[in-house]
Amino acid sequence: MTHWTDALLDEMAVQGDPPADEAVAAHFGTRTPRQAAEGGPRADDRALLTDIATHGGPAPQRTSPALEEFMAAGLPLPVWATGPGAAERVARGQDVFAMYGLQIGSALYCASLPEGYAAPEIARTLVATAQLTGNARRRIAETSQFVLDTMEHGGLDPGRPGWTAVRRVRLMHAAVRHHTAPVRPGRVAVNQEELLGTLLSFTWPPFRALEKYGLPLGDDDREAYLFTWSVIGAHLGIRTDILPLHHEDLPPLDALFRARHHGPSEDGVVLTDALIGVMQGYVPRPLRFLRSLPPDTIRYLVGDDVADMVGVQPSGWARHLYEPMRDAAGAVRLGRLGRWMARRVAMVIGRHIMTSFVAGELRGDQARFEVPEHLAHAWRLRNANERPPVDQRGAARVDSSMRLAPLRSVPRAARQRARAAATG
User: Fold this and answer.
1) Alpha carbons 223 and 235: distance in angstroms, whole number
2) Looking at the domain assignment, is residue 270 inside a domain?
3) Mean pLDDT of the chain
4) Residue 209 placed within a domain
5) N or C: which end of the chain has fewer CB within 10 A?
6) What is the C-alpha separation between 192 and 177, in angstroms, rounded?
């Protein structure tokens, strides 16, 4: 377990990602990050970010040997990520994602992203980047695709989608550092501390959400999932001497990060409003009463303090679903029924957004969005590589087989753990 201190995070706040930064610097010539920040983004800066965001890499007319070499290189990983048993632990972590992916997806949209937006420095960088790379729907879909690509079985193997995705993200971060001034003097934009905070947000909030859904992970599954994300973090250029993370790292690291960064900001509110708008925008008109699910689920998962920071207000009937479960007595009183209801809501949100992103790509609203075959099978989705049909008005129709599967789609082992937690 790493000893997490302000001094360590201060050190990380001035560090970027040298291999990616060197590739981008070589691409742009001798223009340093400080010169770029003072001069503002140039047209080719914007073009590079747009290419990476929408096409997975630089366009042929704008690439360079430095960028091509970085995208193709097998960057070294630490021994803990490649040694005996590492591949098996990664595979087990990916199995956990396949088992609980819909609930984890709900936690990504309703907990991980809002908690990240509660950090004003991160929110400001995200807003600045979003202005260069597209609308909120596209950015959220890209984040979801990144998770799917890296958590697919074998996704981190050379040449596979996850392997390519982490290099693309590293280049994007380096390009942002090259022309974006840090929020605070003496810091680096998209620095090592912020990258660690992102890794934390993809693990700790989902763990807490699964517990609230009545699906607590066992110790081995939790450590395997954390190990998998630690390997992803190493691929993303996070300092490997502070990895892999273990479960006992998360509470003190989360508390330290909140104390250092959390607070209200206009950027955080803007990002959260856009996120809620994306989730609500996919609700069909006949089901408009479900529009209160996203904001009320966010408030339930992240708590009132963070929800207030990012401007989430209780919006409707869904708050009555969650309110009785917000304290221990209420959770005990509702027991299995309450956890079943929360788990069901999570599946509705996760599945609906996944299928809506597939339909969104068909309409041209966003870049590629594909659910890998084995994940589509585990989540009872129709073949994710077969696009839903389009009617004459150009509106995508989601096939009926992509609707929410019955509760038995939660694997038996998960239901057994949920029953044990409910009776315990």
Assistant:
1) 18
2) yes
3) 78
4) yes
5) C
6) 12
Cα separation, 180 vs 38, in Å, equals 8
The percent of residues above 70 in pLDDT, for the chain, comes to 66
pLDDT score for 138: 77
Its pTM surpasses 0.85: no
Confirm if 222 and 247 have CB atoms less than 8 A apart.
yes
Q: Where are the alpha helices (DSSP H) in 215-327?
A: 219-235, 250-261, 266-281, 293-302, 304-309, 318-322
In a domain, 234, yes or no: yes
Q: What are phi and psi of 390, to 5 degrees?
A: -120, 135
Is pLDDT of 341 > 70?
A: no
**Tens digits of residue pLDDT in 255-282:** 999 999 999 999 999 999 999 988 887 7
- Residue appearing with tokens 């340093």: 32
Tell me the residue range of the domain where 364 lies: 83-162+185-424
198 is written with which tokens?
């992102």
Structural domain count of the chain: 1
Decide: helix, strand or coil at residue 390.
strand
Q: Would you say the C-alpha torsion 399, 400, 406, 412 has a positive or negative sign?
A: negative
Report CA Rg, the chain: 21
Provide CB contacts within 8 A for 400, sequence distance 6+. none
Burial class (CB in 10 A: 0-12, 13-18, 19+), 237: buried
What the block records as the tokens of 48 is 């590079």
At residue 67 the predicted structure's pLDDT band, cuts being 50, 70 and 90, is confident
Contact indicator for 329, 196 with CB cutoff of 8 Å? no
Helices (H), 15-108: 18-28, 33-39, 43-55, 65-72, 79-82, 86-107
Of 44-53, 96-105, 330-339, which has the strongest mean pLDDT?
96-105
**More reliable by pLDDT, 9 or 122:** 9
Residue pair 139/277 in contact (Cβ under 8 Å)? The answer is no
> Any idea how long the chain is?
424
Count Cβ atoms within 10 A of the Cβ of residue 232 and give its class: 0-12 exposed, 13-18 middle, 19 or more buried.
buried
CA 404 to chain CA centroid, nearest Å: 22
168 belongs to a structural domain: no
